TrEMBL record:
Pfam family, one: GST_C
InterPro entries found in the cross-reference section: Glutathione-S-Trfase_C-like, Glutathione-S-Trfase_C_sf, Glutathione_S-Trfase, Glutathione_S-Trfase_N, GST_C, Thioredoxin-like_sf
Complex formation: Homodimer.
Domain annotation GST N-terminal: ranges: 1-79
Occurrences of domain GST C-terminal (ranges): 88-224
Protein name as it appears in the record: Glutathione S-transferase family protein
Amino acid sequence: MITLYHHPLCPHSRFVRLLLGEYGITPELIEEKTYERRREFLILDPAGQTPVLVEQGGIVVPGAGPIAEYFDETRGLALGRHRLLPEDPASRVEVRRLCDWFHQKFFHEVTNWLVTEKVYKRYMPRERGGGAPEMELVRAARTNIRTHMRYIGYLAGGRKWLAGEQLSHADLAAAAQLSCVDFLGDVPWEENETAKLWYARVKSRPAFRSLLADRLPGLSPTAVYADLDF
């Protein structure tokens, strides 16, 4: 059994869950509240951040990027032509570039602000930073996402998938970020039909089903979150 330490609205954790779903793997999920700084979790990863994956043999793999590379190295060939990281170097560069875009740029400009202000602070004790959201940060994220939606639409309009002709880590990285924002109702789907159609294709994949079932205590997703025909 593979164990994944995650948070339901951590986009990097969601990326790994999508990745495992594409490999047909159902992990044991352990929800981790990173702000609690649990000793047992910090032993696994001193950085204290989700996701952290523990392989069957006890190998600990922290972080979305290392986990994706680990699975490509250990199981990628088994996917054949559906491999999520292309074989040729130029295509790999493009996939990795876009993964970095969504894991870093999109996250820091959009998802991190929305999830932190609207979700994490809701459950965190005040002495650890909990409390009311800073609406200036929320508004900034809602403005920033429009640029990212245009970029996703641009990529999806010229390619079958975001990085090329095959579904790749790049699509999963982008969809993971968007799924968190969609849960909170902050994706302006009406502004880019091409981006919306691309996301609908990813959202309809079997690997996405567990994400669509996510719920948090006292916090429900928007009505279109689990709707495949949104």
